[in-house]
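SEVERITY: medium
COMPONENT: batch folding queue
REPORTER: lab tech (J.R.)

DESCRIPTION
The queue accepted two submissions in a row. Attaching both inputs and their returned structure tokens so the on-call engineer can compare them side by side.

ATTACHMENT 1
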Amino acid sequence: LDWTGGHGATTSESVTLHFDPSAAMDGSPAICDGPPRDELNPGEIIAMSISSSGVAMRRCAGFLFGILVSVVAIAQESTAPDAFRELYQEFRGLAENDLDEATKFVESKIAEEPDSTDRNVLRQSLASRLMDQRRFQDAEDQLTKLLEFQIRQIDVPANRLGVWMTLRELRETATDKEMLDAVERSYQAFNNLEQSDRDASLFAITQIATMKAQALASVGQDDAARKLVTEIIQDLLKRNRHEDANEETTQSLISALGELTSDEAHNDLWRNQCVETFDQCVTAAIEKYPDSTEFQNAYASAQLNMITRWGQDDPDATEKRIESVQEKLNPLA
């Protein structure tokens, strides 16, 4: 699927991402930047032209994950990949000319098969295009309907990853109160799953938990937000000390810490406390999994922040850190 972000951008770069359906089905992130596995079919390799606009990048990510969730659903429901491809091409043709007609098309297709994940996920692509046209309320309506479907069908593994991505998109249009309500309902839906399903969806649950903490902070519930952050980190650290810890549990920890130390304004409540843990954990991750490109990237990003933003008080320590980072990353180059 070729996707081009608009927004008046004059430059773009071509990115090819490979989708791992087996990863998405167990709740872990579904994108890797290594070569696709031999068993992937052409429908699982998605090439995109991504606009250099930051907003376009975020919306592209939502669009991409909508498509990825559909691919998982296709695999699970034994639907022919061509069926979804044709459905999406028809939607795209309408959306390029008339978003009102595209909206009618999406609603009619969902009405025909209301329990179809690949049809419902068209709402995410529609919402992205509506936001491009600054029709924010219409976009929020589509995302809210999609989220309600995904929560209702939370027993379907593909929808667990979808809930997280829909919430990420919803953040762009929802009020703080609306966002907290959406995250609370999503979080509760995951809590209602069997423990085995919760464990298999660790990445999605962890990301939604961090969103809940940020949403609590956004409405002034600082103590509750801090308490939840502490619980998230303690639980993930405990999981990673267990003998069953693996690359997926490590990734959930690293991703959560990355989210909690990002530039999100509400992270100011706990960022300083999380930075040292993030530094220690991402260093341990690259030492334990030196061939993981994802952990290499996370380590490099964290160390860049440690050097340029988070640890500038001690020039000697900064110099030593630079040397240490070079020692770790140069052999991997």
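ATTACHMENT 2
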Amino acid sequence: RTVTGVQTCALPICALQDRDYSLTLEALKDYQYAELFAGNQDSRGSISVGHFVVSKPQIHVAGFELAKLLGHESDAKFHLAEIASCVEATHQLPKSSLRAIHLVALHKRLDQFQQAMTVAAEVNWADSSWIEYVAPCIYEFSANPDEALHQFEQLQVNENNANAIAARAHFYAEIPKYRAALPRLYQQVVERHPKSVEGRLRALDIIGLMGDPGRLKAEAKKMMVLLRTDTSYWGRDDALRYLAGECSYDVALAAASHSILRRGMVRYARGLECLASGRIDEAREAFRHCVETGAFWLYEYDWSRAYLAQMSRDPNWPSWTEKKPAAE
């Protein structure tokens, strides 16, 4: 029997995609089998010691998210206990951004915010987009805007990291004296990363926070042109077509129906459009649906969680934008 690292990590994702908990159990069996031979395999994709250490938390994070979605309380508790048991071994890995995002994911699910931030502050994120696995955690768990901004500024990033600029905008939006800087932050991404699909896409969040639906639509149209020149950035077209007004929400959802990844992006795009338009009840529903896809490896998933936390703390959030009734 051959168990590869790809197989071990893919099964929990398939379980979330199909809402099939039996696939999670199969992944656990494969992991337990691989555990017997960790570090003593050939080079054809079998699990090494390093992969062995990170595979277990991936399985249990996915299992935890699926168990919650299915309402399996006892299974969720089991996975949470296993997540806690993974922390020490993961801490033993060499310090890196990869180690950091795994530990942030573990500590976050254990409600250990400060531990997550300590790990995140230990590495230099430089130009890595993975900073967006950390920033939403701060936005979700830190209720004080000034403290949240301070926490974010403890992270080591390059000044023109597009994902970090987009993330910073969230913290600036919460503080009146910084809010006027949002257009400048968006323009910084455009000027520094004119052809970056990743950066330009994530910067659309800034326009959503500005409460400018017309500009959001116009910039999404520009993004559609850029997207067509970068076929490597698959999966974003359904969401962008919706934001650009090229298709309805229902059409975009139907096109994304086969993938929780694409569906999560469309749900988030809907939330962002509603946020920009001041239709907060619809935005809340869309962000909730994004979280319910279970696609926890999406930045959009983490930001959806964070937005929902803000809405829970303040029913009038975002307080700086005009609210409107739901669209007919």
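NOTES FROM REPORTER
Residues 49-70 form the longest helix (22 residues).
No errors were logged for either attachment.
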